[in-house]
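Quiz preparation item.
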């Protein structure tokens, strides 16, 4: 295997060369949006049934918002008669992955070491994953698809390179700002070769994409800083199909008020701040039950924190497949996240008719209208969170009003039909304009 096979992205090589102070042997080329192949277009675009490939760099199906989004998008498009395929790494046989990994790893190490004197483990591993994905994509007949829709910067780069020979409409939906989020949580360091590498891939994903569909307006500014044009970005808030559950009304004061948090037990979801807030409110929580739905790496630490703070009202339920039933019995939903895009759990809570408290992160303020459909607090502030919890615990009328407003908003704006209609409109507009 030669270096061109390992590194078919000259713009990545040039970025690394610049970082290490080498004179690059390649030059970055802009991606032309004037595709050489002509498509046979149906001018009745709104009636056309598309063949769509949705691509993700992560496993599918999986637990989490990205997997839920892809499942919802696929289901909604299929319900309208479109053909939808999903490609993800776990569709590749483990034996073939191992074979390709054994081939590509020494070649990558040799390439980096010969060119730069050493190699970065994270970039090496990432390039290996890209190579394996490319080998998988070589088995896919891309020509048969009308639409390519990448769900992350990596598949946008991979599809973008393959698509240079096909000229298919390529859409890109980022589910988070990859580099800035990793800088924020010290996963990568400012000024590192990793920052340079991932920033270049983010910029190129934007360049390759014909149009970007974002989950909330909070993506616009960071994408524009990376080179996107505002006119090439469309916001489509995620919608869901939510089961109809009759809410269980609290008829007597003896029944406990239920506070629920549905989230992976990870450091970014802010459960520790919720527990700190609850510790401030023991005077008000004698008749309160707090349900923690989800599992993850922080469970042991959170159980220890619960015990240390004396939070006997907190119950860990683990991962559940009856979230809608739990929400139907919930009075206050809390998501104390410190980093998020557009949490599905909030949308589910709003559909259930539950008053919501969450944080000023990502697109959450686009879901929750402060003091109307819920309460927004600053991320990481257990004091603000305690104040919001106290307000809704002791103010039944405010709680009822916010829950009613949240349900009305969700039913009007956060449905799968609304989401699919808008995305189909973006697809169709591109076809009709080109």
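Solution:
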């Amino acid at each position: 295997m030669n270096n061109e096979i390992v590194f078919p992205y000259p713009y990545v090589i040039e970025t690394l060369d610049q970082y290490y102070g080498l004179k690059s042997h390649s030059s970055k080329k802009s991606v032309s949006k004037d595709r050489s192949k002509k498509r046979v277009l149906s001018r009745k675009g709104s009636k056309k049934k598309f063949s769509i490939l949705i691509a993700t760099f992560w496993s599918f199906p999986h637990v989490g918002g990205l997997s839920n989004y892809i499942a919802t998008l696929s289901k909604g498009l299929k319900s309208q008669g479109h053909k939808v395929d999903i490609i993800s790494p776990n569709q590749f046989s483990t034996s073939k992955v191992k074979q390709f990994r054994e081939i590509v790893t020494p070649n990558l190490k040799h390439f980096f070491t010969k060119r730069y004197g050493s190699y970065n483990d994270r970039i090496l591993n990432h390039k290996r994953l890209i190579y394996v994905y490319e080998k998988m994509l070589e088995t896919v007949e891309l020509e048969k698809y009308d639409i390519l829709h990448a769900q992350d910067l990596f598949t946008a780069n991979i599809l973008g390179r393959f698509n240079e020979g096909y000229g298919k409409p390529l859409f890109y939906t980022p589910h988070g700002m990859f580099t800035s989020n990793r800088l924020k949580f010290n996963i990568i360091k400012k000024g590192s070769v990793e920052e340079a590498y991932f920033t270049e891939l983010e910029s190129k994903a934007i360049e390759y994409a014909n149009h970007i569909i974002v989950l909330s307006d909070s993506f616009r500014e960071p994408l524009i800083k990376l080179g996107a044009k505002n006119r090439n970005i469309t916001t489509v808030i995620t919608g869901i199909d939510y089961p109809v559950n009759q809410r269980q009304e609290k008829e007597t004061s003896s029944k406990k008020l239920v506070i629920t948090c549905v989230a992976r037990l990870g450091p970014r979801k802010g459960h520790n701040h919720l527990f700190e807030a609850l510790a401030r409110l023991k005077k008000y929580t004698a008749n309160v039950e707090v349900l923690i739905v989800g599992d993850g790496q922080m469970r042991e630490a959170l159980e220890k924190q619960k015990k240390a703070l004396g939070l006997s009202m907190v119950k860990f339920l683990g991962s559940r497949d009856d979230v809608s039933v739990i929400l139907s019995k919930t009075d206050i939903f809390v998501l104390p996240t410190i980093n998020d895009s557009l949490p599905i759990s909030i949308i589910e809570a709003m559909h259930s008719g539950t008053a919501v408290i969450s944080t000023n992160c990502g697109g959450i303020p686009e879901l929750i209208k402060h003091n109307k459909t819920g309460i927004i607090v600053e991320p990481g502030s257990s004091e603000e969170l305690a104040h919001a919890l106290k307000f809704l615990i002791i103010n039944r009328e405010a709680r009822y009003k916010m829950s009613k407003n949240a349900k009305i908003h969700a039913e009007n704006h956060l449905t799968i039909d609304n989401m699919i209609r808008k995305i189909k409109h973006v697809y169709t507009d591109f076809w009709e304009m080109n």
